[in-house]
Specification:
mainly alpha; disordered N terminus
C-alpha cells in the first residue's frame, strides 16, 4: 500500500457541496448585512463586560442577525456531525436531522430557562443566560465554518486532524461559556449552590442524554 492510498480523499455525495454552498451563502448574507454586528460579537468572546453591554444595547438589526446566525449554527452543526457520523447512508437527510435536533435542543433549553426565570422571579438572569448561550454558539460557528468547509475536499489524513481541531474548539467554547455564566451568577449575587444545581440539571444531564443517544445511533449504524 503506497502513501497515496493512505492519504486518499473520501468520496462525498453532491449534496455535501450543495449544503456547503448554502452555508457560504448564509455567511455572506450575515457578513454583508451585519458586518459591524459580527465584529462586535467576536470582540465579546473574551470580554464579559462588552458582552453585557451588547446585551443591554440590542437593536432590531441585532435580532435579525441573531436569527440568521442561529440558522447558520444549526446548519453548520448538522453538516459537521453528518460528515463524521452520517445517518442512513444519506447525507442530506442526516444534515436535516441533526440540524433540526440541535434547533429543538436549544429551543427546549430556552423555554426551560424562561420558565425557571418566571418561577423563581429571575427573569433578568434568564434573559442574560439565553443571550449568552446563543452568543457563544454564533461566535464558535463563525470561527470554525471555514475549517469544516475544507473537510470534504482534502485528503482524509488531513481532514481527520481538522475534525479533531473543530471538536476541540467546540469543547473549549462550551467550557468558556460555562465560565462566562459563572461570572454572570457572581455579578447577579446568586448563590454558588444555584450554579451547581444549574450545572447538574441543565448542563450535565442533557450532555449525558446526548452521549447516550449518540451511542445508540452509532450502534444501530454498525449493526
Amino acid at each position: 500500500m503506497d502513501f497515496a492510498e493512505n492519504i486518499r480523499q473520501v468520496a462525498y455525495p453532491l449534496s455535501v457541496t450543495l449544503f456547503m454552498i448554502l452555508g457560504l451563502a448564509l455567511l455572506a448574507v450575515i457578513k454583508y448585512n451585519f458586518g459591524k454586528n459580527v465584529n462586535e460579537t467576536f470582540e465579546t468572546f473574551f470580554n464579559y463586560r462588552k458582552a453585557m453591554r451588547l446585551f443591554e444595547e440590542r437593536k432590531e438589526s441585532d435580532r435579525q442577525n441573531a436569527i440568521l446566525s442561529d440558522i447558520f449554527f444549526s446548519l453548520v452543526f448538522g453538516i459537521f456531525v453528518s460528515l463524521v457520523f452520517p445517518l442512513w447512508g444519506n447525507f442530506a437527510l442526516s444534515v436535516l436531522f441533526f440540524s433540526l435536533a440541535v434547533t429543538l435542543f436549544y429551543t427546549i433549553k430556552t423555554l426551560i430557562w424562561k420558565a425557571l426565570g418566571s418561577i423563581f422571579m429571575v427573569q433578568a438572569l434568564s434573559k442574560i443566560y439565553i443571550s449568552n448561550m446563543f452568543l457563544f454558539n454564533r461566535i464558535t460557528v463563525l470561527a470554525i465554518f471555514p475549517f469544516i468547509a475544507l473537510i470534504p475536499y482534502i485528503f482524509e489524513v488531513i481532514s481527520s486532524y481538522i475534525t479533531i481541531f473543530v471538536i476541540i474548539v467546540f469543547v473549549f467554547s462550551y467550557f468558556l461559556r460555562l465560565f462566562s455564566f459563572f461570572k454572570i451568577f457572581n455579578a447577579q449575587n446568586v448563590s454558588i449552590f444555584y450554579f451547581i444545581l444549574y450545572l447538574c440539571a441543565l448542563e450535565i444531564l442533557p450532555l449525558l442524554l446526548i452521549v447516550k443517544s449518540c451511542r445508540i445511533l452509532i450502534d444501530n449504524m454498525i449493526y
